[in-house]
Amino acid sequence: MHLEKRDNMGFLIPPSAIVLLVMLGAGCLVCCGYAVWRLMEGSEGATGFKPRTVEQEQYMADVRTRNMEALAYGVRQSRFGPKRKVDPRDPFQDEDRSQVMSG
Fold first, then answer.
1. Do residues 93 and 87 make contact, with C-beta atoms less than 8 angstroms apart?
2. How many CB atoms lie within 10 A of CB 14?
């Protein structure tokens, strides 16, 4: 029985080494891409998040206010019960209907 040298499919280095080098190269490219993205994205705060803009702060405050008003409305309805059928989309629900109808 004659043993022959292992065939590298015509390459100077074994195929497993080629695969390893390709994987290392891909990892290096991912690291370089992350570094470029990090530089282009700009600075972030100490928490890792970008600072909020004034418009975003105002919007968030408006949403919190609306949610608190809706919550308070729901508590009032559960404690005292609705005196009449209430439509939350009706802008005149808190006014006296007799003034609106006769006006």
1. yes
2. 13
81-93 residue pLDDT tens: 666 566 666 666 6
Q: Are 43 and 37 in contact (CB under 8 A)?
A: no
Q: In this structure, are residues 9 and 18 in contact, taking their beta carbons and an 8 Å threshold?
A: no
Residue the block writes with tokens 């308070």: 72
CB-based burial of residue 63 (10 Å sphere; 0-12 exposed, 13-18 middle, 19+ buried)?
A: exposed
* Cα 63 to Cα 57: distance, rounded to the nearest angstrom: 10
Nearest to 93 by CA among 72, 65, 63, 73: 73
pLDDT digits (tens, 9 = 90+) for 2-46: 666 667 777 888 889 999 999 999 999 999 999 898 888 766 656
Helix (H) / strand (E) containing 67: helix 54-80
